[in-house]
Amino acid sequence: MKRVSRGRCLLPDLLIARGMSQNDYAVKSGRHPRMISHFCRNERTMSPEDMYIASKILKCSMENLYEWIEE
Questions:
Q1: Comparing C-alpha atoms, which of 70, 47, 50 is closest to residue 58?
Q2: Per-residue confidence at 2, pLDDT binned at 50, 70, 90?
Q3: Rounded Cα distance, 15 and 18, in Å
Q4: Looking at residue 2, what DSSP letter applies?
Q5: What is the reported pTM?
Q6: CA 60 to CA 1: how far, in whole Å?
Q7: Are 69 and 5 in contact (CB under 8 A)?
Q8: Please, which residues bridge with residue 9 across strands?
Q9: pLDDT tens digits for 4-44?
Q10: Helix, strand or coil, per DSSP, at residue 10
């Protein structure tokens, strides 16, 4: 089986596509705006819980939140 790792976080692209700011998303997700900024700049990775919440807010699959790299 191939190894899979997370690549770039696609949250900023999804927010732009939905006309939502990072601050709007922070309010809806209940996360601090600084944490959302960390996710968007790839300084921290989203936990499975954060990914689940994002998928519900952005109406996408959890798989669509990151570029996935197969090795």
A1: 50
A2: confident
A3: 5
A4: -
A5: 0.90
A6: 26
A7: yes
A8: 66
A9: 999 999 999 999 999 999 999 999 999 999 999 999 999 99
A10: coil
Place of tokens 């998928």: 55
CA 71 to CA 50: how far, in whole Å?
25
Question: What is the C-alpha to C-alpha distance for residues 11 and 1, in angstroms, rounded to an integer?
Answer: 28
- Secondary structure string (H, E, C) spanning 12-67: HHHHHHCCCCHHHHHHHHCCCHHHHHHHHCCCCCCCHHHHHHHHHHHCCCHHHHEE
Other Cβ atoms closer than 10 A to 69: 12
pLDDT of residue 1: 74
How far apart are alpha carbons 55 and 14 in whole angstroms?
10
Q: 3-class DSSP state for residue 1?
A: coil
* Tokens 């809806």, located at residue: 28
